[in-house]
Write a structure and sequence with these properties.
By secondary structure, this protein is α/β, with parallel strands linked by helices. It is 48% helix and 16% strand. Helix 1 crosses helix 3 and helix 9 packs across helix 11. Belongs to the MoxR family.
């Protein structure tokens, strides 16, 4: 068992290494996306244009031998443009017949670029597919391929012509990952890499079937009841209407995190423990994943904005309050 785990971790280390040769810097972003894949969830990447979000997703698809598809969200995009539709086609020897034309959602790794530029109707079509891993067209339900991951991006600066995701839809994303601007040294490496000779062609390290096996392994990672209790207590302390809620929560929070938040923290912490080479989840794992798992699940009010009190500051305070 231990030997098998070590082999699996070595494969994931090789995946990280190959991605790192194409995507300069962003080690934390790459790790968090891998947590999502190992935990079987979806990720929301937030950052200004040009930081390599699309390159990261395409590189991961190459390294993991997954079918990659990209959806560029625009205000005129319709649900059928994502999930597919039935079209009338002439079939040899049969005549005219309705056949299903697959949409770009039918892939293993789907990049939903600038998801907040599409209308709520189209966003809902994508998020339904994320939740159910299936689409329904013409009264027939079609399963999406496995493994299936959606990595959505949004630009936090441009708000004109955008449709912010509602809270219930944000909750479908396992993590919200902030993509930072590169350092001076990283930017220099990026310029040298992208303006010089052609980049190396990546070869795949993992197959889709192997990823499914890795997900099953991650779910078997051990976590103590005490840590689970601390996670549950953390979620309860985000609720402003609960007895014993901290003063900061009562003052600055409109709504707290729901049950999916606790599930997300535990699942992602197991993925982190796996990549760290351990069989069990530690308090450090919980602490490391709490911010990306909670930042999009807690609604801050206008007073928090006026006092420049961020959701990340609140999460750090709550972690300390529960002993993490």
């Amino acid at each position: 068992m231990l030997e098998q785990l070590q082999t699996q971790r070595d494969r994931m280390n090789e995946v990280q290494g190959k991605i790192g040769r194409q995507v300069i810097g962003q080690e934390s972003v790459v790790e968090q996306v891998l947590y999502c894949i190992l935990a079987g969830g979806h990720a929301l990447l937030e950052g200004v244009p040009g930081l390599g979000k699309t390159l990261l997703v395409r590189t991961m698809a190459d390294v993991m031998e997954m079918q990659y598809s990209r959806i560029q969200f625009t205000p005129d995009l319709m649900p059928a443009d994502i999930v597919g539709t039935e079209i009338l086609r002439e079939e040899p020897g049969v005549g005219m017949k309705f056949v299903f034309q697959h949409g770009p959602i039918h892939g293993n790794l789907v990049l939903a670029d600038e998801i907040n530029r599409a209308t709520p109707k189209t966003q809902s079509a994508l998020l339904e597919a994320m939740q159910e891993a299936a689409v329904t067209v013409g009264g027939q339900t079609r399963q999406l391929p496995k493994p299936f991951f959606v990595l959505a991006t949004q630009n936090p600066l441009e708000l004109e012509g955008t449709y912010p995701l509602p809270e219930a839809q944000l909750d479908r994303f396992l993590l919200k990952i902030q993509v930072p601007f590169p350092t001076r040294d990283e930017l220099q490496q990026i310029v040298q890499l992208t303006t010089g000779a052609a980049q190396e062609t990546l070869t795949s390290v993992l197959t889709g079937e192997e990823i499914l096996h890795l997900q099953a392994t991650v779910r078997e990672m051990l976590i103590t009841p005490e840590l689970v209790n601390q996670v549950v207590e953390l979620i309860f302390r985000t609720q402003p209407d609960q007895d014993g809620a901290p003063d900061e929560v009562r003052r600055y929070v409109r709504y707290g995190a729901g049950p999916r938040a606790a599930q997300a923290i535990v699942k992602v912490a197991k993925a982190r423990a796996f990549l760290q080479g351990r069989l069990n989840v530690s308090g450090e794992d919980i602490r490391a994943v709490a911010v990306p798992a909670l930042r999009h699940r807690i609604g801050m009010n206008y007073e928090a904005a006026a006092d420049q009190y961020t959701v990340e500051q609140l999460i750090e305070h709550l972690l300390q309050s529960v002993g993490l």
